[in-house]
Amino acid sequence: MQYIGLQKQINKNNRYSLLLLIAFPALLLIMFYVFFFFAQKQDTEATNLQFQQALPFVLIGVATWFFIAWMGHSSFIRRATGSKPLERMENKRVYNLVENLCIQLGMTMPALYVIEDDSLNAFASGINAKTFSISFSKGILQKLDDEELEGVIAHELTHIRNKDTRLLIVSIIFVGIFSFLAEMALRSLRFGTGGKKKDGGYIILIAIAVTAVCYFISLFLRFGISRSREYLADAGAAEMTKKPYALANALRKVDGDPLIEAVKRGDVAQLFIENPQSAKKSFFSGLFSTHPPIKKRIELLEQFV
Hints:
By secondary structure, the chain is mostly helical.
């Protein structure tokens, strides 16, 4: 894939971020309206009244969720991945590689973290210069040579420059809302009044159906913005280092062992250079994969040589 240019990609991701900020709340409001419509036995007047009454609480709840997740995303991601600060004195090689690329690009150096896992993987995260970071698995630092590691670093720096990280964090936050609501609906069926009251069971079943449909729609929205970013970050890294073969070689090694044991959450997994849950993939999960096939990425990189 030909790299389309930094500013063009930044503008594209800014538009996607704005669309997500509009699409996800709109989908959430539609979900509540549909739920009230069936809960009120398809009485439009009663539905409109109940929706108007619930609207302020829905908006306040979403805004509160988004604010907490937005402000605390760095600590949440570190907790979910088990990453810790990478010590400079013990990892001068890594710091030198990152600093040289950042000086070349004229950008502020991100914070560096390490995940104590012998597998090979890495990811970038953050929403601004204060929170931008790159996390490496212990294995990727030990098993890649300097050129290969430089290619991986350049890939992650391209994600930061393109504002991919901010876009993904927005999608993670909103998909998390739908996931939470779907889980609450399922828990209500299991522990609630479903078996005791006919109307209660009917309402819970409606909630499950509506939240499930909206959750899958939110996954497709996330899917639509995710795959191309890896191709573009690969191309950006090739342009930055002038060594596309190095990143291609790094991806071959990553493909052999990307599994990070600490990563249990699918939303966080999409941040990595390759899905760290790849050993757990099924055909169904592949339909919603946020990463393109790594072999295809290698083939495209080899076209730069």
